């Protein structure tokens, strides 16, 4: 056994060695580097906590979270910054902007920046979500925020309409419509002080896509538009059915949020990311799965990924360092407060009102529609317009889907 | 030497004084117009290294686009409703306010009616979003008091355009009212007195004396209101309806904004910009032709 005597010199050297060992792995950058991340969340949102926690580590990289509006506004600013020769280092990019991020904005392939770090980051996420950030055979993002449409039930209105409180987690469209019609009959004519709509399935591209997929169809098959298939049309018919029956008063997406949290809608199909807001509200919500069609469900997801746009290697490396923290159990735990689905392999405690979303994630989620082509971003607008025309009864689902197929195909083939 | 320097400075002084303003206009107005013209015949997104000449393709694409056709039709509708309303109502209000005998009351009315003009479009739009809110809005509550069914207002395709009209009118009529009030107040009392002595009633005096005397202001208001209806209304559209439902409330300027800053089709956006410039030029020229003989500038 080797004897080790502690004297002043040994103690000093040992302490210095320990200090160096504890500093060196953390402080990976010789000089202080500042990277800016363009984000849809301001300093009052949980994402700032992730940034603050990383900055507190003193790695030599300082991350600045810059609120740049919604995904479209962020993309506009990114274009402007790239055009001016000063691209933002990182951007929280909507899933639907995948092709645009890679092909137009030039999102970097993580493996091109640093192979080992890329491997370390992506292996911390579930295999089922890894493909969502793989565009044109390049890993362009860390799968950050994932949500899926679920159904929220306002239990006060539900009870008031005399419905059974034992609501199954897995619900079907026909069953849900029956309940909605019961609520409409019970509360519609009574001048209920808050009640306005028995049901709201969200007038946006996301929930209509869910109906199309649950009916066995798709909007896009690769880069081919297939939204006019019999299955897709059947899905759209089911989607518009509650408007015809009067159970759904068809609000816009923003109006839905206000009405939902004011207690004006009895049943609301919308993003699972509203879990934390719903849990904190004064209304007693119950979350159940998005309605299946004839017992079938092929749900889609949405959200965003963290992408690197920095051109300089040092800034790109610094971005990867921040991404490693985001992917870590610590980063994921802080982020989980928001109510997005846990896409990582880490064991993160479930938040309130996440049961339905997790059940859908476990069943498998497709991506939201990622519009390809140089004019792909217009695809979302065309799709929304056609869906709105069906809901307003201006066009039949057959007419709208045929028009959508023609217009979307032209847009996608434009470049 | 000094005399020569002074003489040179005297000659150069106007150019030196006007120079910065001219430079400003050239850089921030005419240069972008010329650049828009170049972009309108190109395919370029500002970040791609290649700028491709595409001739009139961008014009062809937008002129065949049903969304552009709807936007153009809506623009005509907005102009047809808002231009007369934003001239006639402020003129009537200004005339009435000037007949209020108590100055305090007249000023209070002017201030109250001018207040919406001072608000930012975003603030005004947000306030009206709440008033029009389909579930908890003031107007639906009002309808409820009378036992009427709630309306979806800006979510309803048949009402969305009218919601934009209401907000835009509310936001803009105050300035015109103030301009008319100032012009009417400057009409000499002696002229009106003479008209009365000649037996002209209030209505006749207004049409034959006051209105011709304020014709320069009337002309100015007509031109600026036309530009405002074509231009500023896009801000109201953005906050209130985003052009929807399915393009029912959009206009050509909002269409241009969407092409450029939502879909990044800068060529098409520039082509729309050029068409808008032409439209404004034609309308302004027509207004000049229509009014020039009726406008009296003599003091």
UniProtKB/TrEMBL annotation, chain A:
Pfam families in the cross-refs: SBP_bac_8 (PF13416)
Entry-linked InterPro entries: Bact_solute-bd_prot1, SBP, TAT_signal
Domain of life: Bacteria
Alphabetized UniProt keyword annotations: Periplasm, Signal
Entry annotated with the keyword Signal: yes
Annotated signal peptide: 1-30
Record's GO cellular component terms: periplasmic space
UniProt keyword annotation of Signal present: yes
Compartment annotation: Periplasm
Coiled-coil ranges (or none): none
Primary localization: periplasm
Similarity remark: Belongs to the bacterial solute-binding protein 1 family.
Protein name: Extracellular solute-binding protein
UniProtKB/TrEMBL annotation, chain B:
Top-level taxon: Bacteria
Subcellular location: Cell membrane
Cellular component GO terms, alphabetical: plasma membrane
Keywords: Cell membrane, Membrane, Transmembrane, Transmembrane helix, Transport
InterPro entries xrefs: ABC_transporter_permease, MetI-like, MetI-like_sf
One annotated GO biological process: transmembrane transport
Residue ranges of domain ABC transmembrane type-1 in the record: 72-287
Membrane topology per record: Multi-pass membrane protein
Record PANTHER family: ABC TRANSPORTER PERMEASE PROTEIN, INNER MEMBRANE ABC TRANSPORTER PERMEASE PROTEIN YCJO
Family in the record: Belongs to the binding-protein-dependent transport system permease family.
Name of the protein: Sugar ABC transporter permease
């Amino acid at each position: 056994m080797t004897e080790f005597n502690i004297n002043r010199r040994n103690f000093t050297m040992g302490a210095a060695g320990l200090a160096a060992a504890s500093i060196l792995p953390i402080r990976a950058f010789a000089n202080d580097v500042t990277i800016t991340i363009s984000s849809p969340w301001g300093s009052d949102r949980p994402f700032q906590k992730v940034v603050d926690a990383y900055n507190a580590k003193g790695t030599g990289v300082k991350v600045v979270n810059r609120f740049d509006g919604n995904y479209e506004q962020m993309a506009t600013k990114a274009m402007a910054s790239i055009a001016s020769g000063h691209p933002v280092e990182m951007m929280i990019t909507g899933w639907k902007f995948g092709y645009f991020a890679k092909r137009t904005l030039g999102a970097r392939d993580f493996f091109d920046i640093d192979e080992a770090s890329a491997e370390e980051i992506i292996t911390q996420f579930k295999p089922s979500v890894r493909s969502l950030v793989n565009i044109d055979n390049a890993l362009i993002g860390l799968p950050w925020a994932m949500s899926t449409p679920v159904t929220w039930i306002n239990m006060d209105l539900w009870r008031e309409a005399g419905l059974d409180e034992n609501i199954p987690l897995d619900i079907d469209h026909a069953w849900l419509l029956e309940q909605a019609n019961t609520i409409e009959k019970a509360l519609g004519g009574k001048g209920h002080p808050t009640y306005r709509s028995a049901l709201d399935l969200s007038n946006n591209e996301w929930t209509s896509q869910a109906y199309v997929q649950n009916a066995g169809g798709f909007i896009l098959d690769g880069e081919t538009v297939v939204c006019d298939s019999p299955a897709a049309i059947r899905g759209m018919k089911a989607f518009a059915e509650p408007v015809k029956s009067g159970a759904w008063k068809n609000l816009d997406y923003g109006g839905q949020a206000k009405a939902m949290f004011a207690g004006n809608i009895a049943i609301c199909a919308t993003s699972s990311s509203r879990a934390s807001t719903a849990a904190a509200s004064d209304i007693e919500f119950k979350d159940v799965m998005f309605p299946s069609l004839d017992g079938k469900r092929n749900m889609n997801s949405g959200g965003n990924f963290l992408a690197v746009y920095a051109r300089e290697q040092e800034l790109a490396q610094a971005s990867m360092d921040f991404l490693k923290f985001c992917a870590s159990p610590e980063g994921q735990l802080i982020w989980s407060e928001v109510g997005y689905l846990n896409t990582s392999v880490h064991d993160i405690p479930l938040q309130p009102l996440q049961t339905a979303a997790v059940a859908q994630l476990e069943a498998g989620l497709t991506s939201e529609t990622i519009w390809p082509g140089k004019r792909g971003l217009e695809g979302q607008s065309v799709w929304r317009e056609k869906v709105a025309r069906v809901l307003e009864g201006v066009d039949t689902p057959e007419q709208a889907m045929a028009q959508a197929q023609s217009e979307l195909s032209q847009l996608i083939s434009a470049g | 030497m000094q005399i020569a320097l002074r003489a040179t400075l005297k000659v150069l002084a106007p150019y030196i004084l006007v120079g910065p303003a001219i430079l400003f206009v050239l850089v921030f107005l005419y240069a972008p117009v010329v650049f828009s013209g170049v972009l309108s015949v190109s395919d370029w997104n500002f970040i791609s290294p290649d700028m491709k000449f595409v001739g009139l393709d961008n014009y062809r694409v937008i002129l065949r686009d049903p969304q552009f056709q709807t936007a153009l039709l809506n623009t005509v509708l907005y102009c047809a409703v808002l231009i007369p309303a934003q001239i006639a109502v402020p003129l009537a209000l200004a005339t009435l306010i000037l007949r209020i005998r108590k100055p305090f009351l007249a000023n209070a009315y002017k201030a109250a009616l001018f207040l919406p003009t001072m608000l930012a479009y975003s603030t005004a739009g947000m306030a009206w979003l709440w008033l029009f809110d389909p579930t908890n809005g003031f107007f639906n509550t009002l309808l409820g008091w009378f036992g009427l069914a709630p309306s979806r207002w800006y979510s309803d395709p048949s009402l969305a355009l009218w919601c934009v009209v209401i907000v835009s009118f509310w936001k803009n009529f105050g300035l015109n009212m103030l301009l008319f009030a100032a012009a009417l107040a400057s009409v000499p009392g002696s002229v009106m007195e003479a008209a009365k002595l000649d037996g002209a009633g209030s209505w006749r005096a207004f049409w034959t004396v006051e209105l011709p005397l304020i014709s320069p202001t009337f002309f100015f208001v007509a031109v600026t209101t036309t530009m405002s209806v074509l231009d500023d209304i896009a801000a109201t559209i953005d906050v209130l309806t985003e052009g929807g439902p399915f393009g029912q409330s959009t206009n050509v300027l909002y269409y241009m904004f969407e092409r450029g800053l939502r879909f990044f089709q800068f060529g098409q956006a520039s082509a729309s910009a050029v068409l808008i410039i032409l439209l404004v030029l034609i309308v302004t020229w027509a207004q000049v032709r229509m009014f020039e003989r009726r406008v009296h500038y003599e003091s």
